[in-house]
Amino acid sequence: MKKLVKCRVCKKKISINADNCPSCGEPVDKEYYVAESKKGNNIIVAFGVIFGLYYFATMAIDRENRKIKNTPEYKLEEKNRKIKESEELYLKIKKIPASYIYLNMNGYNKLTKLNPENNVFQNKLKEYRNKVSNMEMEIGAPSKMVNMDGVPVEIAIYWNHHLKDPSSLDDEKCSNVGYSSKGWMYECTYRAKNSFGALVLGSNTYAIKKDVVTRTR
Ligand SMILES: [Zn+2]
Fold first, then answer.
1. CA 37 to ligand 1 center in whole angstroms
2. Ligand 1 mean position to 34 CA, how many Å?
3. What is the CA(143)–ligand 1 centre distance, in A?
4. How far does residue 126's CA lie from ligand 1's centre (Å)?
5. 42 CB contacts (<8 Å, ≥6 apart)?
6. 3 C-alpha to center of ligand 1: Å?
7. Residue 178 needs a FRET pair 20 to 30 A away by CA distance; which of 19, 58, 150, 163 works?
8. How far, in Å, from the CA of 42 to the mean position of ligand 1?
């Protein structure tokens, strides 16, 4: 049983053996504090039991899993699964244009994790990591935020400043087409009103270099 308790009136710490709280003068009801302390203990015990059961259950499952994972059958299956997964992934990655350096980098990162000893994948990963860091130094990171239509926010802001009637903007779409020394390239189409108030289709290429947008076509 704790000797110090919180006064139930003023919440200051008091001795359970005192007759009155020295701060507010409330008489110290020893039975009340003993009962409160037991309530707290019961909750702690209940948590302990639940945690203990959970812990032992998890341990048992872990032990079973470890046993299964150590069997030669499991190891062979796992190896074959990784080989198959790698082959499928590699076929996909080979189809990605080299200019999509982030996709390539992430792909070879996955492949390297699946095949830590494969030099070809390691070298490709290194190559794309270098490309990414060189590009980011030269033209900045690609746009991180897109609006609901998948348009980089930088381009949406550009339209807002440059279109004759930005409120008429509709059907806007942009696709990332890689990079050049001008920046990250985006091909965009949209519909907006021109200076005569007629709804026309726009189709332009934009470059984003260090967050600055320029129209290249
Ligand atoms: Zn008090």
1. 17
2. 17
3. 60
4. 68
5. none
6. 15
7. 163
8. 26
Distance from the alpha carbon of residue 157 to the mean position of ligand 1, in angstroms: 62
- Residues 204, 185 contacting (CB under 8 angstroms): no
Report how far ligand 1's centroid is from the alpha carbon of 35 (Å).
18
What is the spatial distance between Cα 22 and Cα 14, in angstroms, rounded to a whole number?
Answer: 7
What is the whole-number distance in angstroms between the Cα of residue 137 and the centre of ligand 1?
A: 65
HSE-up (13 A, CA, CB side) for residue 152:
24
Residue among 217, 157, 147 nearest 182 (CA): 217
Distance (angstroms) between ligand 1 centre and the Cα of 85 equals 69
CA atoms of 70 and 6, how far apart (whole Å):
55
Report if pTM > 0.85.
no
User: For each of the chain's 217 residues, which pLDDT tens digit applies?
Assistant: 568 899 999 999 999 999 999 999 999 999 998 888 888 888 889 999 999 999 999 999 999 888 888 888 899 998 899 889 999 999 999 999 888 888 899 999 999 999 988 999 999 999 999 999 998 999 998 887 887 788 999 999 999 999 999 999 999 999 877 888 899 999 999 999 999 999 999 999 999 999 899 999 8
Q: Between vectors from CA 120 to CA 115 and to CA 122, what angle results, nearest 5°?
A: 65
